[in-house]
């Protein structure tokens, strides 16, 4: 009698990374204070109001506080929400000190540079930040690092996030140097959510192609 064929591996029932990471919602939230700053700064400048930068900074803080309150009420973790609000307050403080409207985006530029460097270093030292984030969300702590396939997959997928930070810097830095406040606002409002969404979408195939067919999936490190 011929031996029974080897059982086929059960298909992986993994959550998509968009489901785990939340898609572009956070990037959209972060764009609201930026839009409030630029629009208020423009309107008050056109109408001849005194200190348009002050009005813009105040509008950004109010918008950030409204978004923070809305998200906390919707069930998001207060720490993450308040961290985002702190970034808005810091950006407003910088622009009030320097008196240069484009400096409102300095926090974002420095944050992007630091994030690109941190993600790249995490890949090199074999602690890819995507694995840290997803492993934490799945309650795995560091078990995913003991799975060489998952570790390789998270390293590969983390490059998508490095790339999006580099693209942001390539767009933001020349606009900041040229003092193009409106274009900075447009780029920040439109580009950032798109790049985050693309990074989330690109991460999953990059991760999955590193896993062999018989791998049980990201929920079950070997």
UniProtKB/TrEMBL annotation:
Keywords associated with the record: Membrane, Transmembrane, Transmembrane helix
InterPro entries: UCP010219 (IPR016566)
Membrane-spanning ranges: 21-43, 49-68, 80-97, 117-138, 159-178, 190-207
Pfam families, sorted: DUF3159
Superkingdom as given in the UniProt entry: Bacteria
Keyword Metal-binding applies: no
Transmembrane keyword on record: yes
Name of the protein in its database record: DUF3159 domain-containing protein
High-level lineage: Bacteria, Bacillati, Actinomycetota, Actinomycetes, Pseudonocardiales
